[in-house]
Amino acid sequence: MKTMSYGLLKGKKGIIFGALDEKSIAWKAAERCHEEGAEFILSNAPVALRMGELNKLAEKTGSEVVGADATSMEDLTALFDRAQEKYGKIDFILHSIGMSVNVRKGIHYTEMDYNFLNKGWDISAVSFHKVMKAAWDKDIMNEWGSILALSYIAAQRSFPDYNDMADNKAYLESITRSFGYFWGKDKNVRVNTISQSPTPTTAGQGVKGFSGFLKFADEMSPLGNATADDCANYIVSMFSDLTKKVTMQNLFNDGGYSTTGVSEKVAERFT
Ligand code: NAI
Questions:
Q1: How far is the CA of 96 from the centre of ligand 1 (A)?
Q2: Cα 19 to Cα 33: distance, rounded to the nearest angstrom
Q3: Packing angle between helix 25-35 and helix 54-61, nearest 10 degrees?
Q4: Is 183 helix (H, G, I), strand (E, B) or coil?
Q5: Cα separations (Å) of 179 from 88, 99, 135, 153, 205?
Q6: What's the CATH code, domain 13-270?
Q7: pTM, two decimal places
Q8: Which ligand 1 atom is at minimum distance from the Cα of 169?
């Protein structure tokens, strides 16, 4: 069913990181933000841009694509320079970036390669600090702007196959609180993470045993898994003026999974 448009983001400008293909959470978010009247730059790592998919989204949403490796301060500074040139100030940033080399290579948590850990940590967690630092130095955010990243409940609870991404997400959520304090106090800008249900995207499907896990989470959640489209709607609300005083939070968009001990559906399998 098509979601109605309410003009919630009319006149707002921003940057959306991490749309890879049409399954990406950032892709759906860009489509919804566009429907709600926002204008934005789409950014992704140069290697992702080479796929060419992002140009389709750019065309559809009337956006410009600017490549940036989110671990490179140099790339990020150039990106924010371009955003400043184009918009002056901006109102929102979506960080929808994650990657673990240990997960990709199927290396067990107990056998972790620390060089791979460093790389994944930089891409999945520290890059959020770097993005905010680039925005901070440019003083590019309008008052009451909103900065968001995406997280997963493995930051709070153990999910064996999520590997070092669990630790990266815990760090990401901590950065959200630490930097969020200064954004709030000095700039009246809010910073949050949305902790999303397992979602069949390129990053999601890279996790071992993903399809069984997706089904398990769905059956555990009273409202069922939140889809990428559900996440896009939540992102719109977090970028809108309706959530001005929500900050330094990890917000679960998970159909009730995080506070369900067991569901009847799952329990029935053991009777
Ligand atoms: P995706 O694979 O579509 O998006 C991940 C993005 O990260 C890609 O666009 C990729 O190009 C980008 N990226 C990787 N390295 C980069 C770098 N060095 N610089 C800039 N961008 C880089 O997958 P998805 O699922 O849409 O992931 C988005 C976010 O949602 C990630 O933070 C992920 O951890 C999070 N998330 C995903 C869940 C899932 O089950 N799919 C569940 C909860 C959170």
A1: 5
A2: 13
A3: 10
A4: helix
A5: 23, 22, 12, 21, 30
A6: 3.40.50.720
A7: 0.98
A8: 34
